[in-house]
Protein: Clavaminate synthase-like protein
Amino acid sequence: MATYDFQMEDEAIATIDVSPFTAEAGRYPPDSERLKAGQALVEALHNLGFVKITGHGIQRDEIREALAWTKKLFDLPYEEKMKAPHPPGPMPHRGYSGLGKEKVYSQEDIKAHGDVADVSQELRKISDFKESYEIGSEEDPVQQNIWLPDAVLPGFRHYEVTLYKRLAAVSAILLEAISVGLGLSNEENATLTKLISDHHCQLRLLHYPAISRDQLQNGLIARLPSHTDWGTFTMLFQDERGGLELEDPKSHDFLHAKPEEGAFILNIGDMLQRFTNDYFISPLHRVSVPEVDTVPDSGIPARYSIPFFTCPDFYHTVATLPRFITAETPAKYEPVRFDQYGSIISKYQYQGDKM
Ligand SMILES: O=C(O)CCC(=O)C(=O)O
Ligand SMILES: [Fe+2]
Structure:
């Protein structure tokens, strides 16, 4: 097996233990502990826009199991995976997309190319070498899940539906920690909680296949170019290979998020950036491939990851919370309806079967 080690530099990424928010009934920690953890989380998110989370209550075995199901799915023959194909176009964003079907780029890429049609053509010369499977809530009123027939991978649907609910519940805990850390009033908290709808989050399974040295040589392979996430925040689980890098918004250095068993990365999305008027920045992040001359002859190994994107309801309008608008920090963002914001971005990222 290849032993390529990504360069790891993640000392700057804070680790926040949110266990005061996950304690079982009857063992409720004092408010002071919750306040301390909430404030530490808010400070870390204010500094970088991303943190490592521990004490979230998801057991290591559960994370291993989630990654194992992801591998089982992508190990299936292509024809079997194509029994749950992602439809052409961006919506519904559900089901299986094969290698190179999705092309991700950032607002900066669009600005640099001047025109979204140009950016699409230009950047598509470099293929995103990954395959993905998108899952939403079974109760999502707008987008329906696209499942493999159960006989293709028995138990997969049941497992992923349960995982979705589990992660949605943890995301509500994180949102509560953020609210406590910011010291929001009940009224403000009510606005914050609307930023996550358990019927409209997205669970994504990702596989980045192994890449040989020859493939790297021609420079036409990317894993996941830098972008921001457009929901509220993202919880990201990656396997032991690592490879996720996030940008420090002040220095613009990309920091490697070293994988740590039992921890996940939480990064801010565009909705929470707008809600807080840039108090929290939605960080650029990417999964890059290393320079070819640093890679052993065996190439770089496959990688699996599972992001869970939290989002408001489709038709919810996200406006900046008034407390973040001051003389020093004037309002930067107009209120925006989530579906309208999302459609601007997603339209240019997905071409479905047209590729
Ligand atoms: O695979 C990863 O680590 C990152 C995935 C990601 O950023 C995304 O899907 O938006
Ligand atoms: Fe992302």
Observations:
- The chain has a mean pLDDT of 88.
- The pocket of 2-oxoglutaric acid (ligand 1) is lined by residues 204, 206, 224, 229, 236, 238, 244, 285, 287, 305, 307 (CB under 6 Å).
